[in-house]
């Protein structure tokens, strides 16, 4: 590897895990006036990476994977005001499966010394998604009953912790008994193994037939209709992901019978301005420092094993966060 090249994982076409290409001779990105160059230390693996690889979400090719990372600034663009070389930072949105990422200044936040790179890369997409959901998508109140699907996953464990902290009764659905135990350790009051139990009936029993104040559904296609049934009158269904496939188009009148609210958020729209970014990152850093959220790292991979990380997250065998160390 020469000094102008780096290791990176990218795709030239979308498809299965075999489309992921690992190379050690990729040019280090150049930095535009409004961007910084980050030497990545730890980057996050997220379910969205699989959508961008598979073709569920569109990308411009070639495309370097990775939507979040933590590392050190090694170069700043001429217009950059808020950062300097040597700053420890976290960021969202850039091509992170690489030694170096060029990141717009607007997408970067400083990392205080008491937060490790590993923690920084773990709380980006998943904790911000979970926190924006329980504070804005549906403002969880003490006494609410909240249903969290895939409760032992990356976003799921954090949702259980946060909703529990806000005083809700949390029902978590999971695919195995081991995941159920982990969800309970992280704040789920009730767990349902939805691969073998009739989870709609169980939710009905637990809520005395009323349903949940909010259903937080990142599973998508296989759960959406039953999530609607499990939401109480005047309740909120947040459909925030497609782990089982995209939710097919729906008739808006499906909301009428119970005056339901339906939301389909995307994290990046919560962080469109510098003020918004600082607000949400600041709150999540605070949750970590106060130990309201506890990170559960499933595994740390080498960059050359990114393919295995994708196989693992898609296999439903992982819990919590998957990371790549550079
Ligand atoms: N809208 C946003 O801005 C945003 C941001 C971040 C994440 N998300 C979404 O949040 C969801 C969770 O993301 P994550 O990164 O934390 O992943 P994750 O929850 O750690 O992994 C996905 C989980 O989904 C469950 N699942 C159910 N059916 C599945 C199927 N057919 N194939 C694979 N998995 C299935 C599995 O848990 P069980 O085995 O327990 O069923 C699996 O472990 C994803 O849908 C992701 O796209 C959305």
UniProtKB/TrEMBL annotation:
Any one GO CC term of the record: cytosol
Pfam families assigned: ADH_N, ADH_zinc_N
Coiled coil: none
Matching CDD domains: QOR2
Name the record gives this protein: Probable quinone oxidoreductase
Swiss-Prot/TrEMBL keywords: NADP, Oxidoreductase
Organism in which the protein naturally occurs: Mucor saturninus
InterPro entries (UniProt xref): ADH-like_C, ADH-like_N, ER, GroES-like_sf, NAD(P)-bd_dom_sf, QOR-like
Enoyl reductase (ER) domain ranges (all copies): 15-324
